[in-house]
């Protein structure tokens, strides 16, 4: 059974088609990322899958249950962290998560343990309005996970976090997924999607353009390799004369050689004793994203 089964899902706002006949399946235990520029329809899609927004067309089943009209049987089985979360006023972080936990019949000890897991034990007595943006984000995630849901939806969960907090949250999300839980997240961080996700859906203008593993998406791009040699090892002219090099670029960090035959170019560099400090970069998920969605600025 699929954890999520979506067929022909559509949402319109006047003349704007925010989600355009999207169909997809997410397997139980899978970690899926949804990528897309601002306005691509990611949040609207997730809100319909979560049962928070009524579709204009199409259908959604989550854990074998229809989500609309709002299905109370699903609420204890899913966890949702929204892009913008609201908390009860004037409550401390400990009181907030204990309140959320009580809605699901979860004890206070478990609730307090989640504060520890997201690195907020030292802020347990602080009111939410006194937390930083990143700390409030971590509290929101803890509240979404406190009842140990089977399926977790996270909308840009690391957007306000510093690099250390992001990495710690990656470890937490990986451990949740490793325990058999299904996780779906939207993110603007390509490295996050590559590290965490089994499959990635690239979305734009309300449609899913590609849905596959990060490695398969990169392979399908057929992007050239970029080989950087250390400063002083070669001039751009010398690099350009190596068979298989199609483009060179010199900067303060050395010379970059662009090629679709990296093995031959590396062999030539080795023969000339120019391998010290060499780095090789192949295509990335960011290259896939830009290839599919373009480079123009989005509002």
In words, what does this structure look like?
Helix 5 links the parallel strand 7 (151-155) and strand 8. The chain has two domains: 2-219, Rossmann fold (3-Layer(aba) Sandwich), CATH 3.40.50.300; 224-282, Alpha-Beta Plaits (2-Layer Sandwich), CATH 3.30.70. It is built from ten helices and 14 strands. The strands form three sheets. A six-stranded mixed sheet has the order 6-7-8-3-9-10, with helices on both faces. Strands 2-1-4-5 form a four-stranded antiparallel sheet, with helices on one face. A four-stranded antiparallel sheet has the order 12-13-11-14. The mean pLDDT is 93. The two termini are 38 Å apart. The longest helix is centred in the middle third of the chain and has 16 residues, at 163-178. It is α/β, with parallel strands linked by helices and 299 residues long.
Estimated share of beta-strand residues: 25-35%
Name the shape in a single word.
globular
> Biggest β-sheet: count, sense, barrel?
6 strands, mixed
Instruction: Compute the number of helices.
Output: 10
- Count of DSSP strands: 14
CATH topology of the largest domain, what is it called?
A: Rossmann fold
CATH superfamily of the largest domain: P-loop containing nucleotide triphosphate hydrolases
User: How is the largest sheet built, in terms of strand order?
Assistant: 6-7-8-3-9-10
Q: Write down the domain tally.
A: 2
CATH architecture of the largest domain: 3-Layer(aba) Sandwich
Secondary structure class reads: alpha/beta
Pfam families: ABC_tran
Protein name: ABC transporter ATP-binding protein
Keywords: Antibiotic resistance, ATP-binding, Cell membrane, Membrane, Nucleotide-binding, Translocase, Transport
Subcellular location: Cell membrane
């Amino acid at each position: 059974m699929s954890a999520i089964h979506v067929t022909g899902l559509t949402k319109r706002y006047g003349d704007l088609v925010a989600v355009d006949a999207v169909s997809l399946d997410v397997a139980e235990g899978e970690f899926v990322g949804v990528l897309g520029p601002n306005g691509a329809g990611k949040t609207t899609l997730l809100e319909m899958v979560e049962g928070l927004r009524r579709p204009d067309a199409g259908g959604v089943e989550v854990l074998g249950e229809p989500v609309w009209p709002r299905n109370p049987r699903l609420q204890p089985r899913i966890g949702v962290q929204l892009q913008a979360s609201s908390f009860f006023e004037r409550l401390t972080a400990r009181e907030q998560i204990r309140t959320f936990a009580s809605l699901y019949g979860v004890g206070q000890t478990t609730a307090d343990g989640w504060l520890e897991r997201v690195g907020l034990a030292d802020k347990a007595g602080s009111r939410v309005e006194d937390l930083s943006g990143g700390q409030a984000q971590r509290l929101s995630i803890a509240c979404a996970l406190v009842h140990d849901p089977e399926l977790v939806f996270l909308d840009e969960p690391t957007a306000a976090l510093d690099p250390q907090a992001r990495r710690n949250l990656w470890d937490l999300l990986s451990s949740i997924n490793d325990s058999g839980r299904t996780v779906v997240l939207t993110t603007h961080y390509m490295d996050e999607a590559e590290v965490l996700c089994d499959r990635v859906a690239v979305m734009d203008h309300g449609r899913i353009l590609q849905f596959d593993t990060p490695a398969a998406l990169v392979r399908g791009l057929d992007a050239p390799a970029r080989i950087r040699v250390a400063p002083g090892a070669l001039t751009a002219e010398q690099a350009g004369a190596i068979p298989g090099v199609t483009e060179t670029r010199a900067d303060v960090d050395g010379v970059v050689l662009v090629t679709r035959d990296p093995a031959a170019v590396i062999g030539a560099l080795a023969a000339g004793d120019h391998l010290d400090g060499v780095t090789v970069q192949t295509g990335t998920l960011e290259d896939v994203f830009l290839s599919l969605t373009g480079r123009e600025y989005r509002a």
